[in-house]
Amino acid sequence: MILNSATSAPTVTDATGTKANAATDPAAAQDRFLKLLVAQLNNQDPMNPLDNAQMTSQIAQINTVTGIQQLNQTMQSMAEQFNSLQVMQGTALIGRNVMTEGSSLAVADKAGKGGFELPSAATNVKIEVTTAGGQVVDTIDLGAKAAGRHTFEWDASKYTGTTDALQFRVTAVNGSTKLSSTPLALSKVTAAGAEDGQLKLTLANGKTINYSQIKALV
């Protein structure tokens, strides 16, 4: 006769009154196993008693199942604690300016700010400030730039249009060779939270990003 400690999964209540599913409660699983084992011993055939090896195998199986359940509970608890730590880390970023991939120009106090990344050195870099429709508003010549991440600032004091939807594009060359570049948008973190085990940040420009998408703190 083979014992099966998962034949039923009643709901149990602990000393604090909290209900738990007995199918995932290691203590309840052990209790069911012992009850089944005692019942089996009491009702075994005297002419064909329970084999010691079979009993040892069943005890080993219940110990393995209990160990796995306890490990799962421990990992779940660690995951919950990690999520809490992530949120705490995220709250420390609220109010900070971050850079993420994007071409939106952040304008405040009559100054537009943004950034870009270059894969290699450039002999000349040009920034074009544009409207949402692509019309060029102004051009900034930055000259030669080394490989890596850079920021720029645009004087918006003379611009009379709405600045909410301004964009920018980067043109970088090394001699006559055009270089690829990654535009970086600047925005302020306004909220933080966790979703599916990942830290999520809400930005002032309305976007929600993963923490891993941050390129730089400014």
UniProtKB/TrEMBL annotation:
Domain of life: Bacteria
Keywords, in A-Z order: Bacterial flagellum biogenesis, Cell projection, Cilium, Flagellum
Domain FlgD Tudor-like: 86-215
This protein's record includes keyword Hydrolase: no
A biological-process GO annotation: bacterial-type flagellum organization
Occurrences of domain FlgD/Vpr Ig-like (ranges): 108-175
Region (Disordered) residue spans: 1-25
Polar residues composition bias: residue spans: 1-19
Summary of the function given for this chain in its UniProt record: Required for flagellar hook formation. May act as a scaffolding protein.
Family of the protein in this entry: Belongs to the FlgD family.
Annotated protein name in UniProt: Basal-body rod modification protein FlgD
